[in-house]
Structures are given as C-alpha cells and as structure tokens.
Design goal:
It is a single chain. It contains five helices and six strands. The protein is α+β, with helices and mostly antiparallel strands and 139 residues long. It has one domain (4-138). Strands 2-3-1-4-5-6 form a six-stranded mixed β-sheet. A hairpin with a 2-residue loop joins strand 4 (97-104) and strand 5.
C-alpha cells in the first residue's frame, strides 16, 4: 500500500473504530473546560505528549490515541506562537469535526475528522475531512 490515497483510505477506515471514544473524550475535555482546542494525537510509536486514551493492541486497533491541546502544542513549539490565531481560525471553522494530529509514514498532519459519520454520508468521509501538514502551523 504505497499510494498515499490508499493510505488515507486505510486511515479513514481505521478511524471509524475510534469515533465514539474521540467524541466522548472531546465532550469531557470541553465540559470540564480543560481546553477550548482539544487535539487528539494518533500514533504508532512511543510518545510522551498528552494523556494516553487508547493504547494500540489486538482489541483496540493499530493506533494509540493521546489527548492533548493547542496549549500543549504551543508550549512544545509544534504550533508556533505566530500561527496560533491561524490554527484557532481553522479549528473554529470545523466545529463538527474532531481535530487529529496523525503521526504516520505520510508525515505529521492535522486532520479534521467528522464527529458524526451520518453528517457526510452522501459524499463519503474522505471528501469531508481536511488535512493540514504540521508546517501549515509551524512555519
């Protein structure tokens, strides 16, 4: 599966199993006012960032998921200070999406993935999520 489109399609398929957990974690983070900008990190290697929500395994899938925030991304210079307003604008344009930071062989990318699969069913999810590379917000 070397074609990037095939990899995105596989990622989309993988994400379906995480949608409920991501939505639940998002609601908790917002309700408890932990951040106004929750970011979920999906990765397949060791990561010391955010709070672990799901560890990859036979019962959970190939991705580990950590909950983080714009604030942590800013402190760690993943999103530079002069790009925070731009990130907030993009984030606020995607209120029906979960913000993911995916670390994969395709690189480090922000993906805004639909919270509700039925919202975009007529068009397919692939057409409805937005992909930004890390460099869009880190200079």
């Amino acid at each position: 599966m070397s074609d990037p489109i095939e990899k995105y399609l596989q990622l989309e398929e993988d994400l379906k199993r995480y949608r409920k957990a991501l939505n639940n974690a998002l609601e908790i983070m917002l309700d408890q006012e932990l951040t106004n900008y929750p970011i979920f990190i999906l990765h397949q290697q060791e990561l010391e960032m955010g709070v672990s929500l799901i560890e990859a395994g036979p019962n959970t899938g190939v991705w580990s998921v950590h909950a983080s925030s714009l604030e942590e991304f800013s402190v760690k210079n993943i999103i530079l200070e002069d790009r925070i307003a731009e990130f907030q604008k993009v984030f606020n344009e995607h209120t029906e999406h979960v913000c993911l930071f995916v670390l994969s062989e395709l690189g480090a990318q922000f993906i805004f993935y639909p919270r509700d699969e039925t919202l975009y069913k007529p068009y397919g999810n692939l057409n409805s999520y937005k992909i930004f590379t890390r460099s869009d917000f880190s200079g």
